[in-house]
Amino acid sequence: MSRYKTETKGNITHVIDTQGTEGDRVITSFHGAEGRKHANQIANGANENRAERCPRCGHLIPNDEMAGVYCGALSRRDNETEICSECGSLEAFEDWEDAHYPKYEGEPYWIVEHEIS
To answer: DSSP string covering 33-97, please?
Structure first.
């Protein structure tokens, strides 16, 4: 028996983890007929062997807890490579930091001794 089940409300199909530490919880949701089909594949265990490792950190995609249940993130470095969710977030933060904070080009300020007058 799979640890996941589906629940449809209107046009939205939720995938529910039935073996979570805090009881049943929705892990992802899909819209429409194609979404319902994908949700049912997850609930029936079709994606359990799909899990790949993140080329950046080596963890499972999308994460170690939900390996192969849904896709990971698309790397911002080449717009082709699938990476784990955490690395996707880290790449977003790295890009944001590069855009908002210029690289310091001076002497290492933590080494320079300052005279206090």
So the answer is: HHHHHHHHHHHTTTTTT---B-TTT-PBSS-STTTTTS--EEPTTTSS-EE-HHHHHHHHHHHHH
Q: Where are the domains of the chain?
A: 1-46, 49-102
| Rounded CA separation 42/52 (Å) | 16
pLDDT along the chain (117 residues), means of 10: 77 78 72 73 62 86 78 88 89 84 64 57
- H or E segment to which residue 99 belongs: helix 85-100
**Angle, alpha carbons 42-48-54 (nearest 5°):** 110
The 8 Å CB, 24+ separation contacts for 73-76 are none
